[in-house]
Amino acid sequence: xxxxxxxxxxxxxxxxxxxxxxxxxxxxxxxxxxxxxxxxxxxxxxxxxxxxxxxxxxxxxxxxxxxxxxxxxxxxxxxxxxxxxxxxxxxxxxxxxxxxxxxxxxxxxxxxxxxxxxxxxxxxxxxxxxxxxxxxxxxxxxxxxxxxxxxxxxxxxxxxxxxxxxxxxxxxxxxxxxxxxxxxxxxxxxxxxxxxxxxxxxxxxxxxxxxxxxxxxxxxxxxxxxxxxxxxxxxxxxxxxxxxxxxxxxxxxxxxxxxxxxxxxxxxxxxxxxxxxxxxxxxxxxxxxxxxxxxxxxxxxxxxxxxxxxxxxxxxxxxxxxxxxxxxxxxxxxxxxxxxxxxxxxxxxxxxxxxxxxxxxxxxxxxxxxxxxxxxxxxxxxxxxxxxxxxxxxxxxxxxxxxxxxxxxxxxxxxxxxxxxxxxxxxxxxxxxxxxxxxxxxxxxxxxxxxxxxxxxxxxxxxxxxxxxxxxxxxxxxxxxxxxxxxxxxxxxxxxxxxxxxxxxxxxxxxxxxxxxxxxxxxxxxxxxxxxxxxxxxxxxxxxxxxxxxxxxxxxxxxxxxxxxxxxxxxxxxxxxxxxxxxxxxxxxxxxxxxxxxxxxxxxxxxxxxxxxxxxxxxxxxxxxxxxxxxxxxxxxxxxxxxxxxxxxxxxxxxxxxxxxxxxxxxxxxxxxxxxxxxxxxxxxxxxxxxxxxxxxxxxxxxxxxxxxxxxxxxxxxxxxxxxxxxxxxxxxxxxxxxxx
Amino acid sequence: xxxxxxxxxxxxxxxxxxxxxxxxxxxxxxxxxxxxxxxxxxxxxxxxxxxxxxxxxxxxxxxxxxxxxxxxxxxxxxxxxxxxxxxxxxxxxxxxxxxxxxxxxxxxxxxxxxxxxxxxxxxxxxxxxxxxxxxxxxxxxxxxxxxxxxxxxxxxxxxxxxxxxxxxxxxxxxxxxxxxxxxxxxxxxxxxxxxxxxxxxxxxxxxxxxxxxxxxxxxxxxxxxxxxxxxxxxxxxxxxxxxxxxxxxxxxxxxxxxxxxxxxxxxxxxxxxxxxxxxxxxxxxxxxxxxxxxxxxxxxxxxxxxxxxxxxxxxxxxxxxxxxxxxxxxxxxxxxxxxxxxxxxxxxxxxxxxxxxxxxxxxxxxxxxxxxxxxxxxxxxxxxxxxxxxxxxxxxxxxxxxxxxxxxxxxxxxxxxxxxxxxxxxxxxxxxxxxxxxxxxxxxxxxxxxxxxxxxxxxxxxxxxxxxxxxxxxxxxxxxxxxxxxxxxxxxxxxxxxxxxxxxxxxxxxxxxxxxxxxxxxxxxxxxxxxxxxxxxxxxxxxxxxxxxxxxxxxxxxxxxxxxxxxxxxxxxxxxxxxxxxxxxxxxxxxxxxxxxxxxxxxxxxxxxxxxxxxxxxxxxxxxxxxxxxxxxxxxxxxxxxxxxxxxxxxxxxxxxxxxxxxxxxxxxxxxxxxxxxxxxxxxxxxxxxxxxxxxxxxxxxxxxxxxxxxxxxxxxxxxxxxxxxxxxxxxxxxxxxxxx
Lengths: 741, 741
Prior knowledge:
The structure is a homodimer of 741-residue chains.
Chain A: H1 2-26, H2 36-40, H3 45-54, H4 57-67, H5 77-90, E1 99-111, E2 119-123, E3 129-132, E4 154-155, E5 160-164, E6 166-168, H6 174-181, E7 190-194, H7 202-205, E8 214-218, H8 221-224, E9 250-251, E10 286-288, H9 291-298, E11 335-340, E12 343-356, E13 361-371, H10 383-401, E14 409-416, H11 424-432, H12 434-440, E15 441-446, E16 456-461, H13 466-474, H14 486-493, E17 495-498, E18 502-505, H15 517-523, E19 528-534, H16 555-562, H17 567-585, H18 593-617, H19 623-644, H20 653-664, H21 698-710, H22 713-737
Parallel strand pairs in A: 4-9, 6-7, 7-8, 8-10, 13-14, 13-15, 15-19
Antiparallel strand pairs in A: 1-12, 2-3, 2-11, 5-11, 12-14, 16-19, 17-18
Helix pairs in contact in A: 4-10, 10-17, 13-17, 18-19, 19-22, 21-22
């Protein structure tokens, strides 16, 4: 009986236990919802390893081959072909994205007239042509013979006919024309300038006030070919150097975005300003030429010898010009004549957009983009970047289609149109979706030219992103290396000593508008990254890779001279993709605001060193700026301490979201839409462009330079104004990092 | 045996069941975190009932008594006393908030000189004074005798001495001076104008181009006292009407915020523009006077009779002026002389801030505010609102201190300083915390003058808030009523027929800058509400309550004539507090974007009716605007359908947060910081101020009026520009309502 009772109790205990187990695990507990694990999920390191392993050089190479099949200048049939390529890839059932579509804008472009090419000639007094500048680059392969290769020209140069004596104006900087005008009367002259030192259009804008009637621009072999200039054995196809007839094309406008629709997306019925109201474009004709012709013109110039800083690599003395050619030259008394037939036209340009929808926070976007349009075949610019983007989307798309991955946040890919004409596709996109993108975008990653050269990573970004860039670059092998990381190679080539981190790679700043990050950084205030593989600067003086914007930027050039084996492309794809996955998947955004504080302190120290004494002399206190930066540092530290003390995976998802919003929106707090009225769409008071050339707050630096130069009270007032603007912005940003109110 | 077996099975079943129960409910399920209920919690209706029950007329009355104890013009000792009152209340251990503090700004104010009062006199050719305008209002109670009662003056009128022949310029509108100048040469004259029709400062700004050297302004009994003007039996203290010596003070600046620090918070070291660069202030002296004196001056005027629309309530004909007085008057040939000694000074003004920290989403703010400063005792303006705010914070604070309530979101209370000088405290606050407030604020509720009169609720708001205002007002009894709700009484007094809702109360729009909502609506784009109890317009023509900005706006006046028993104050406190709790506690924000769509459609219909024909004649298509509004409607409906089909309490909290962010940020999408360069801090393209007087898109309406008047192509271009601006803004807003990308 006792045994029976014991057995009974034991049985009952077993049954009870079974009941408890069933009750605990078997019944859907209404207080333990199914989404609980999803919202707490962090980045999956094994998935990143899988991604890195799958990024493949052959795919990148074949992407590049397809993209560079024909010239694809914006809005040409070749451009439409690449639109179709992008759509087909991104809509692929096995390796595509969730969705892909095109978005179109009607944008203001400028082209030469194929039926009436631009001409530059040397003519004598009877208008007899003594020399004609080459109208097309010399063809070394069939690529360059394609009839779709656009004649070298200066987009947005006005059409017109100019004739005058030639002068040499160095780089066409204001100081160059100023100096030249002290020797010569420039009225009625044509100025020849070399690339570099000033913006393309600026070379004409700076010239016009002196009465110059036309400008030529060329690439001096000193600045691009390390001095070499023979096409028989030195330049492409024998090396990466620009052949003598090579010409850098380009857009010669100052502002980015469609020029007729400032701050408005360029839709069909959108208001357009009258073209005569466009600012920042050349007021006089300008035309780029090859150094083969520039050599003939410059070495024939009369007048005094230009100073040594003006001398290039030609084997002659660069004279100012008499104005005009020297008496001993065959061109004695001749003029240079420019006949420019550029036409402005409103054309339909497409962005191609693709998206992977986020699972947990679909309303948070990580955007990755590059432009699609080139000047000619654009193997390096931009197709190296597009090839990388397509390889990233192939690998990620396949993981999505296989159901093994879906990012926490949404990822948007943008293949921008008409970048070469002034970042137009990306700018119009930010104008059309201003509110949505401002509110929801975590970060923008731009990979335009993915590989300039094979030596080292180059990355520019907001400082808050330094850490994730470092982390990703440590996990990727340097091209062709098995034990050195991208990070190590980078640190070797370019480094700085951080007060916090010691010796680290030098991250650049996004202070300009060199690619499609511009609208994201400056107009929207979105934390952005621009990256590529690039040169060992100890080995070349080239301003940029020598085939840039020429007809020689082809698949052959890229695969032979820029990245044989596509290993640098692969390294960039791996690094950028790694960053992208971390931004999209990390529970806590991988942003570090103390790294931002370090750069603000660095800027502050520079400002104190350079300006404090003179500011005090003008009764302007720099103390508010010091207080603002100190407050930013304190609040950044407190936020990080709070994060450190939190168990984010187990707290309410709204707490993580709150912190992530603080991190995401940090750069937005630096925007001031009224601080720089003369700089189109520049609103970020820390990173806006500056002409003062100081590594400090740009508005302050420019205003200070102006005030120091003019000495006017009203200019010192502007210094004070910019000091207040930047102090308030930093304090405002700091307050967003503080505890919630 | 069978029975035993059955019993055994039954016992086992019972034990199993017990086990299941224990397992299910008795063991803390590790996958069911403690915060799960908190994040899904919705507004507690019983708590709202408790709140409504506790709002008490006696407390409001005693708040008002304390706040109006002494005059408390901005930055005076009386103002500091109210700062201390607010801090003491909000820091109270039993009924206070979580935290309260003061925030200070150094702001540009304008005061008369107590040692050298402004004088207006009638002088003869020998400069002998024939009549002196009263310098202080007549005292009927000891309140008005307080030496701290500021002399009536026009803040921001320049100091100066003006002398000239008097003319009558009606309301000082541009058309008034235009008309007057067709009869008279206005050079060197002094113009007397009545309040109404044009902004205060505008009466002087409009006058100056005609050579007018000084302006007087008074309140005509027609416009405020329903014609009554005797202090022996008709006006206060016998009724609510303004006594003959009563003078409406005011600020005479056009723009809001500190005038020296546009877009910058006015801290000690902030950059200040030179005072001579201030725009929108009177260029010539202006001084307000009582109708007692105005009567003497106007009835003595010579010249032709002014038109009937210019005639007021005086028992004489309002003549234009000869210029000057009529020959039969004792003032024949006399001048009016103005000696204005106003001084501008930078003074320290405080906002008092208080906060209840949110439990679940502390980084979402509902802001409730009112200004604290008055012109004199300010019983109605603003202390009626402050009394209401203090009663709301007392009831809510007590619930917090007792631990029975903590809102889901944070609530911020603002007691703004220096509103009377141009909404300065609230504007500086929005400038200092621009980024944080833009990113996190759900809504702003403004209750300035809580009670103008006892007849009906008046509320103006963004249309998305209509529904929560209606809901709250249905739950509150109309003052002194037990069966009629505030909503019903409101609908009776002022209604419209909505295509969706049928007959509903008429909600106003926040198109102006009449109180501290201005910076929140126009500068930050935050969905806002401004509300009060107000008149039965069928019973009075008064522009506003007659003691407005006079020395008669006292506790005695308020409690006797405006709201005996404080029942309207109570109704406003209950309604506003109800709205506040719903905004702070609702799981899903009580915003309705279809109601926004309805108003946009209404605006569109008006625009089509008024403008389409002429737009087409000028080759401007209105189609983009139609498409944008249609897209807004479609996306609003889809969002609401998605909400309707969701079980928000059981889905991831991030989904609710996503929808709430869409709702919260909707108004932000309408901001354009560059669309209205001539209107300080006006950025909201739907609600910005307009002079065209049409219930449609303001930028379009104003541009159209200008183009229609001038006929210039460049003005039609501006019409097209504004059409594009508003179309893009609405489309941008619509896209934020769409599915996530």
